[in-house]
Automatic annotation (TrEMBL):
<dbReference type="GO" id="GO:0007166">
    <property type="term" value="P:cell surface receptor signaling pathway"/>
</dbReference>
<feature type="domain" description="Ig-like">
    <location>
        <begin position="102"/>
        <end position="179"/>
    </location>
</feature>
<keyword id="KW-0472">Membrane</keyword>
<dbReference type="GO" id="GO:0006955">
    <property type="term" value="P:immune response"/>
</dbReference>
<dbReference type="Pfam" id="PF00530">
    <property type="entry name" value="SRCR"/>
</dbReference>
<keyword id="KW-0393">Immunoglobulin domain</keyword>
<dbReference type="Pfam" id="PF00047">
    <property type="entry name" value="ig"/>
</dbReference>
<dbReference type="GO" id="GO:0009897">
    <property type="term" value="C:external side of plasma membrane"/>
</dbReference>
<keyword id="KW-0325">Glycoprotein</keyword>
<dbReference type="InterPro" id="IPR013151">
    <property type="entry name" value="Immunoglobulin_dom"/>
</dbReference>
<dbReference type="InterPro" id="IPR036179">
    <property type="entry name" value="Ig-like_dom_sf"/>
</dbReference>
<feature type="disulfide bond">
    <location>
        <begin position="457"/>
        <end position="467"/>
    </location>
</feature>
<dbReference type="InterPro" id="IPR040878">
    <property type="entry name" value="IL-40-like_Ig"/>
</dbReference>
<dbReference type="InterPro" id="IPR001190">
    <property type="entry name" value="SRCR"/>
</dbReference>
<dbReference type="Pfam" id="PF13895">
    <property type="entry name" value="Ig_2"/>
</dbReference>
<keyword id="KW-1015">Disulfide bond</keyword>
<dbReference type="InterPro" id="IPR050488">
    <property type="entry name" value="Ig_Fc_receptor"/>
</dbReference>
Amino acid sequence: MAPIGTCNWLSISIPNDVYEGDQVVIRCSGEKNDKIKRLMYYKDGSQISSHHNAPSYTISNARPSDSGSYFCKADRKLFFIIDVTEKTRTSWLTVQELFPAPGLTATPTRPTEGSSVMLSCNTRLPAARSSTQLRYFFIRDGHTLKSDWSSSKVEISVIRKEDSGYYWCEAMTASHSVSKQSRQTYIEVQRVPVSQVSMETHPPGGQAVEGEMLVLVCFVAEGTGVTTFSWHREDTKESLGRKTQRSQRAELEIPVVRGSHGGGFYCTADNSYGPIQSQVVNITVRVPVSHPILTFSAPGTLTFIGDVVELHCEDRRASPPILYWFYHENVILGNTSAPFGGGASFNLSLTSKHSGNYSCKADNGLGAQHSELVILSVTDTPPKVRLMNGPHRCEGRVEVEQEGRWGTVCDDGWDMKDVTVVCRELGCGAGKHTPAGMLYPPVAEKAQPVLIQVALCNGTEEALAECEQIEASDCGHDEDAGAVCEGG
């Protein structure tokens, strides 16, 4: 073998402007390539390849580590039996960085829970390779958020506290030939404690209606993340309900309000920093009118022309103020109010036209209701009997009228048959007792006569005047008869 020589017979060709990921072809050739028996490639003085008649050495995916000094050696035939080794000059290969390792930035750097965050994967291409397409990957704690993304930015529209963690990104060429990762960046999501807790009601103003729905709405002016809302009575601290949700408001429904729901209520909100209480809201439960009851001042339904009858309408449970209307045969007689609740009355001076059906209506703004019909009968001729000084018109000392004079009845022979007839005549129902008239002082005046000595009723008569009678003789007012009817 002849000694190695360096000459222009063998040359090396290395491309310029080489970047990471490129395919690099290093060529070695001689004046007469067919004379080359073996071709060897060297980098930084070390042999990297040996070929028989191979004109090139290829680096398929160049890396900066491929930079260095390259040369070739070739064994060629000089004469029939003499070989010689030729060597090229040394040529330098520089593999340039295609883009630096990206840097991940978050805007804002300390995001608040519920806000949006923009992640940016920042790197740059050289001007000579500005058209190179890059793909971006965004990772959190080993889980890919976005992959093969053509934009260097990605937005997390709503970030949560649990999204805190280590984030990084990766930039890669479309051919996957070059890939680089950023350093990890820890992003801590800030949670805002709840504040300014308040409570409202529907219907508004804490005005609930018995039997209807009441909604208690709890609000927070600030606060992020999952919040636990709870509702309580002020007096007992009893919990009415609890809801945990990712919201700044929550509702508690009381489907059917009762009178017992009246009082003070409040709500609390807690998103892990401790509960914050709202102000107390007083709930007033208004009771609608249900079934007003109409009554007359007279215990019976038998009245007479000229009598003054008091019509009384009352709904004992309805919330004030209540307005009452009074009707005769569906014609309004008048109205009156009960500003503090209870009932109201209307006085009516009877005429022959006032017989018929009566009713009343009550309304406290929550819906009007009518009473049942009550029949009133007005009699043209007043009875010839009356009961005096009793607690009501169906009890007292018995007096009768004859020829325009009123006098008493002696209790001689006075029994339940007589009382039954008196009660029937007065429209006071059945007879109950036969008391002495002395029990209803003051006693009758001496000038008032005793008009009936003995009443001999059989109990079926419609009036005392129909009974057989014995006129007065020697009875005094200390023997006056009395009567008690069940109508009292």
